[in-house]
Design brief:
Elements: H1 2-45
InterPro entries: Entericidin (IPR012556)
Keywords: Cell membrane, Lipoprotein, Membrane, Palmitate, Signal
Protein name: Entericidin A/B family lipoprotein
Length: 46
């Protein structure tokens, strides 16, 4: 019983860490895309 609980907690922790990195990476991608859009908008105004 204890092994099952430890396994489940470990699996949940790993999934949590993986999700955090995925969200962080997605945030960075969105930030880069926003920067590119802003740059294009500035160039279009000139």
């Amino acid at each position: 019983m204890t092994r099952i609980v430890v396994f489940c907690l470990s699996a949940a922790a790993l999934l949590g860490v993986a999700a955090c990195e995925t969200v962080e990476g997605a945030g960075q991608d969105i930030e880069k895309a926003g920067g590119a859009i802003s740059q294009e908008a500035r160039e279009a105004q000139n």
